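Write out the 3D structure for:
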Amino acid sequence: MVSLIRKDWFQTSMHCILQNLKVRVQLLFGIESSWKEVVMKLTVKSEDGAVSEAIHEIVENG
């Protein structure tokens, strides 16, 4: 589910279980008013810090 949190800013979040570890991923993105740039903030929380880092790397590197 994607929700509008303020003008030009949208948020979506997901909870999942990876190999018995609870993981929460939250994505916040905004569109700059001139529509030329998109800003993205990714927050990942898990019981294992290595899992959080791996998800960040996957998103960062495509």
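The chain has a mean pLDDT of 77.
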